[in-house]
Design goal:
By secondary structure, this protein is of the alpha+beta class. 33% of the residues lie in helices and 20% in strands. Among the domains are: 32 residues, no CATH class; 131 residues, Glutaredoxin (3-Layer(aba) Sandwich), CATH 3.40.30.120. This is Putative FAD-monooxygenase.
Amino acid sequence: MELFRRLGVADKLRAAGVPASEPLDVVWATSGSGSILHRFAYAAPDAAREAARVRNDGTDTLEPAMRVSQIVLEPVLKKLVDANPLVDVRFGWAYEAFEQDAEGVTATIRNGGTGETASIRALYLAGCDGGGSRVRRDAGIDLEGMHAIGEAYMVHFRSTDHQALAKFGIAYHLQTAHGTLIAQNGHDIWTLQTLAPPDSDPDELLRNFMGRSFDYEILVANPWTPHMVVANRLRNGRIFLAGDAAHQVIPTGGYGMNTGIGDAVDLGWKLAAAVKGWGGEALLESYEVERLAIARRNREAAQRHLEVRLAIINLFMEAQAEGDLEGAEASERRLELGRRIAELGNAENESWGIEHGYRYRSPVICPDGPEPALDPMRAAPTTFPGSRLPSLHLADGRPLFDLLGPEFTLIATGQANIGGFEAAAAAAGVPATVVRLDREPVLDLLERPLLLVRPDQHVAWRGVAAPDDWASILATVTGRAGEADRREKAA
């Protein structure tokens, strides 16, 4: 959501999501109509935003989380893209094949309705065409990991039977041994995700989950196969992969779309830099280095979360083996089951280090001393190069992130002298903004008086004083360091 804010569309997306006044609670129960076992309570986005402003310690995000269904989000994004004069949208056309050469890529596309084909010539091609990516296939890129790790079933339905569906109050996820019920819009659209064979009866799945009959209308019901795979490469020449084409993980943690958005932002600004002429080959190479590491880390996190879910299901089975979990006589067993669920925790919804504390390591990042440890549960504020800039509010209430320029930004605090930065950036053709900030206590969290921040809000370089040679720093962070040597070798 911070990245969407940078694009100026966060408010438009929130208007389509679940109201920000609703909490993000996760509830475990014996069944949808049974007894509550444990509630992991999480503040509503509105409350989380205010708490982050008051806390102001760099551990939070400027934008709180947003609950939204993909089928609601995508039309909003499409409308934004349709209205953008710089984007040529061709719905109904599908990618067929590509050919690349030293100067660019030629892609063949086909109209699904008429069969008409057309060619598109471009400098680069980004394959964002999903798990079954034809671009990935044609680029000769393989997937590594575990395929078909289980049999899953989704039931997407409409219901206003809140007496049945909201027995335990407002919750984002209601979870039982029979699956997870997701409240998609806080009113009448719901999704049940469960482990079940492909020939399952969706009506039976709903009844088993709820433990009773209720009124509903099924909108979509289908089996699906979860994978835990990551591409072994994200690039072949002028061809790049992003999103599900590059990685597929189970939804424990919600890392699929979120990782894909991170891919798009990282690849987007680097392609823009290359097209505009100020980004070098090493900058394009860094996309694979940076995003593959994050995709693998997120896959491992999703696997850990799945193992916790399976452990909880085993606890259910053990408790049910001793008898029915409902009724007064089972109260002690329910209490014990709830205690053990609480003990296992809910890292799936609390891994802030995974979600916004991740750090890039690549040739376009300038390291600075010993690297601090990464904690998957906590996004400790740091400006160690490669890290996301901590979100802070200044004394006058302004969010630091809102002061960043559209490309590179040099933050200078207190009396820090920036030396010849502006002249060096102009000479190199690197678009850069300088943000000068008066000294105030909260800025101690930035750790250094000089920070060079990338367009994706990650720190590329930091220092206590301006370097003697800004040109070499800018050459490194834009991927142009050593380009003359490479050209000489190529010649």
